[in-house]
Amino acid sequence: MIQIQNLHHRYPDGTYALKGIHLTISKGEFILLCGPNGSGKTTLFRAMGGLLKPSEGSILINGFDAFKDSFQVRQRVGLVFQDPDCQIVGETVREDIAFGPENLGLTQKEVSERVNWAMEMMGLQGLSEKPCYLLSGGEKKRLAIAGVMAMKPEVILFDEPFSSLDYPGIQEVLRYMIHLHQEGHTLMVTTHDVEKVIAHITRMAILRHGEIQALGEPEHLVKGLSQFGVRPPCYVLLGKEKMTWLE
Ligand SMILES: Nc1ncnc2c1ncn2[C@@H]1O[C@H](COP(=O)(O)OP(=O)(O)OP(=O)(O)O)[C@@H](O)[C@H]1O
Ligand SMILES: [Mg+2]
Questions:
Q1: Minimum-distance ligand to the CA of 81?
Q2: Are 47 and 66 in contact (CB under 8 A)?
Q3: Burial of 62 (0-12, 13-18, 19+ CB in 10 A)
Q4: Is the CB of 38 under 6 A from ligand 1?
């Protein structure tokens, strides 16, 4: 479903952020992308979402080139930005969530159903008419996720979705991810807190200095994470077997 070949990216100031990424992702996978600050995670997601023209190499999503066929790719790939302020475009919560489904050409009734559903999923019902700029940090994060949810894209890239969320918020996002995964969507998530998702992912990739330095099943990689600058989950540090945040 997603084929990334020999992907390099150099920013105009010379920063060499991605250095030859190769990655093939099948439909329905749930992949954790982890790595230290500045390792290239957000750059890779932006390239996959068609928001950045890579210096070299290609990304194909269902056969469409992520950058050249950006119209088709934006209908299929949803990106939850690390910084919600980069994503919020509407004046009020309701208007902001409606923006994506309206652009998909849905009817007013369908748009309204999706908006109500996404607000309910992310616990935003009481805030529907509130101006977005007055929201708290965690509420903005919920709104950014709701906006992508309302578009129901085949592929969703979550860039640090748990940052600034409270415990119920983290659980809601996790439940939503698991639900999407069960429905056959393809998911990728970045987080510095591996333990939040480890019990639910199918594969993990470790990015460092713009290269994928390890790729495989979580059980195989989880004990060696610290050598890549990634904190192992608490249960590994405590010598326990497995852990989920959903109990
Ligand atoms: N617009 C830009 N111009 C120049 N350099 C950039 C730009 N955006 C990112 N970089 C650099 O590219 C590298 C990768 O950044 P990126 O944001 O992809 O890292 P990341 O893995 O998402 O980090 P974090 O965990 O902090 O979110 C960093 O060295 C960063 O300074
Ligand atoms: Mg980032």
A1: 2
A2: yes
A3: middle
A4: yes
CA-nearest residue for atom 18, ligand 1, is 40
- Let me know if 128 is exposed, middle or buried by CB neighbors in 10 A (0-12, 13-18, 19+): middle
pLDDT for res 94: 97
What residues does 77 pair with on adjacent strands? Answer: 155
**Model pLDDT, residue 70:** 86
Say how far apart CA 148 and CA 66 lie, in whole Å.
Answer: 18
Give per-residue pLDDT as tens, 77-111.
Answer: 999 998 889 889 999 999 999 999 998 889 999 99
Identify the residue whose C-alpha is closest to ligand 1 atom 25. Answer: 37
Q: 2-237 maps to which CATH number?
A: 3.40.50.300
pLDDT at residue 239 in the model:
73
Amino acid 188: pLDDT = 97
180 residue type, one letter: L
**Inter-residue contact 217 to 199 (CB < 8 Å):** no
Where are the chain's structural domains?
2-237
Which residues in the chain show pLDDT less than 50? none
The answer to whether the CB of 164 falls within 8 A of the CB of 141 is yes
Inter-residue contact 180 to 152 (CB < 8 Å): no
pTM (two decimals): 0.93
